[in-house]
Amino acid sequence: MSVEQTVKMPAAPRFARLRTFLDGDLVYGFLRTPSAVISAIVLLVIALTAIAAPLLSPQDPYDLTQLYLDKAELPPIWTAEGQAPYLLGTDVQGRDIFSAILYGSRISLMIGFASVIVSVMIGIVVGLTSGYVGGRIDNLLMRIGDLVLSIPTLLVAILVSAIFRELLPVSMRDAFTPVILTTSIAITSWVQYARIVRASTMVEARKEYVLAARILRLPPLRIMLTHILPNVMTAVLVTATLNLGLAILAEATLSFLGVGMPVTQPSLGTLIRIGNQYFFSGSWWVVLFPALQLSLIILAVNLLGDWLRDALNPKLR
Amino acid sequence: MKSFLKTSVACIAALTLTTFSAAAENVLKWGAQRDVVSLDPYSYGDTFTIAVLNHVYEGLVRYDDNLQIAPALATSWEVVSPTLWRFHLRQGVTFHDGAPFTADDVLASLTRVSDPASPLRGNLPAYQSAKKIDDFTVEVTTTPNYPLLLNDLTNIVIFDKEWLVANKAEAPTDVGKGVEGYATAHANGTGPFKVVSRKPDAETVFEVNKAWWDKPRHNIDKIVFTPITSAATRVAALLSGEIDFTNSAPLQDIPRLQASSDIKVLASNELRTVFFVFNRTDKTIASDITDKNPMNDIKVRQAMYQSIDIDALQKKVMRGLSRNTGSMVAPAIPGYVEALDSRLPYDPDAAKKLLAEAGYPNGFTFSFVCENDGYVNEEEICQAVSSMWARVGLKATLDVAPTSLQTAKFESGKFDVGILGWANEPMIDSYSILVQVVHSKTGTSGVFNWGGWKYPEVDALIDAAGKELDREKRLDFQSEALTKIKDDVAFLPLHQQPMAWATGSKVESLVQLTDNKPRHWLTKMK
């Protein structure tokens, strides 16, 4: 018999909860912060268009049969040589920039989210164990974390993705690249979460409610997951939001350096890499629009993360 | 206080001195599209690497400003018998470390390059043995009536024997197989420049060799060679004056470079023909067809050929600067005949039909190995061709990476379709491509026979050409061999690639020949 079960939920709990949430400080603060509202809208639009890319884009940039060289390097539609349906022009292979951006954002967001989720999960497991168990295990896990942090993130990511790439047979390489990228970014960024979770766990573990749970002889796993974890999640969520931008940027950097998404399935970073080669020749649209989209995503995520950090930090209220 | 004053005065003096000498020095900053694969000129048959290393090492003979063979470390030579050549060596030549150049050095170098493990042995196919007559006379034995020994020797540079022995570098190195040695990172030649420092993929510095035997026509004191892989960065570096010369100006940026008053662009067609090669063994490398190799069917190869829209490729990817070709050699290469130059027409419907006849109505997948820093706009070519192939059902898995990674895949045959460009250098004769690429792998022949193709009739013709001193007869054999491989679509020729160099304001004049090799010992700076 645990404490929660004795509390009776009010009728129609779902709506009531929503009501409380909407009336709460968080939503009030959110609506009062224009930068947060605009960021959220921008992010929502980008995410929705990315998800609906196959419906919105005039061309499937991954389907090589749809790329025609005679439509290559067309400028955006509002210039004199622009052609429908190539809204933002085409690159040197005849790839529609607009479609490529939608598909590219999809990959960038997907890899960004996935790597943050994976690293948060690793971080939580390591942090909880470390903070709750303590002693030698704590020491061991934290030293491993220090080791990971001592090598520059990008270097590790390049190394990991290069190794995975060479291990896979050629025919499977392209299909597995997103997984490889996610892993290589996650491997390098879990330490931050682990440290935050460990620190909060150590604080929480000494509080009375944990003590009470211990006296009730609840198994440690249950104490960690149902008692401590909900109380350390706030800090993790804030960091995760802020790190989402970094993760997307890391993917773009890897692709820009040529160890990320292949040219046949370009992410935003790959598009910027391709476009960069044509910057001096006057084809500015090939690099400008993907770069704008990337900046927009990162800016929106960061502004949202900043607001969330302030809103959830009682000291700043 | 006194000592402090002294040191500061000394420091200031030293600083002024260095600035003075720096101002007086002519430094040529060379931004290349990639690094040399090694400092050992025998480590891989790569024209660009050998061209850069020709500033440091020299052969017995060399090409002059008109691509005619001229004496270098040998002053004269005579043919004693159909199998025996005698070379008289230049006296008073020293290596960069001060050691004198003698017949022993020639023998050591020839032994090293003809070693069975040497990747460059194919560049000297007729070599049998060499003998020292005296310190400055060497006799070379070849296969009977071999016509192109001097052409070959322009590429065979001479090492110092004592240096090789002292550094245990007698065994050849091989970039493709990852075999390295002392000569990979160190150099000691007789050439106009010497290597003073080397950081692979970052910077290699050459300094003028004041003791060079030839009268210098250049006025360069130092060459700083920096690989800049990104085309845009290279252009930016040139525009900002950070580099004075690039041997690889991106085609798409030529108009922008020409618009700048300081920059001169030298663009024309080079001798190099770029073509696709096929894996011709029994098994595919990465394909959904595993029981046999579709590339062994001429219909499949022809389908691949006919689905390439070469005009679109020329116009868009090559910016109208390449020369479309059906021939494996450029018109300037002896052995070329006009009939070879006609291409199979671009016809995707015919290609689909051919594929259906071959038993692949829905096409198949295969690996397509390309580099991104080898030939002009190589990555773009491979991407564009992949999408042309995709339209007839041929699904290429494009594997693009730098030359340093792909060379090993090519040499070990780990590709279904690959790309190769052959300039027939240094021979400047179609015998070069025939013996090194087309011929099956036997002895010194077929070093670049990556896919294991075999044409006994063609081999016989090439062997016959290698023993024929009569030029007309020899070229007939070679043209016939080229025709036979063309008829079987053994390779898929694309174009003779353009070459584009660009110089900044500090360069007064330089020599650009069709072999696309920078020769800075002929470069004048302002």
TrEMBL record, chain A:
Gene3D superfamilies: MetI-like. Keywords: Cell membrane, Membrane, Transmembrane, Transmembrane helix, Transport. PROSITE patterns: ABC_TM1. One of its GO terms (biological process) is transmembrane transport. It is found in: Cell membrane. It is a multi-pass membrane protein. The chain crosses the membrane at residues 36-56, 107-128, 140-164, 176-197, 232-263, 283-305. InterPro entries: BP-dependent_transpt_permease (IPR050366), MetI-like (IPR000515), MetI-like_sf (IPR035906), OppC_N (IPR025966). Residues 105-305 form the ABC transmembrane type-1 domain. GO terms for cellular component: plasma membrane. Belongs to the binding-protein-dependent transport system permease family. This is ABC transporter permease.
TrEMBL record, chain B:
Keywords: Signal, Transport. Its main location: periplasm. GO terms for biological process: peptide transport. Residues 1-24 form the signal peptide. Residues 69-441 form the Solute-binding protein family domain. GO terms for cellular component: ATP-binding cassette (ABC) transporter complex; outer membrane-bounded periplasmic space. It is found in: Periplasm. It comes from the Bacteria. GO terms for molecular function: peptide transmembrane transporter activity. Belongs to the bacterial solute-binding protein 5 family. This is ABC transporter substrate-binding protein.
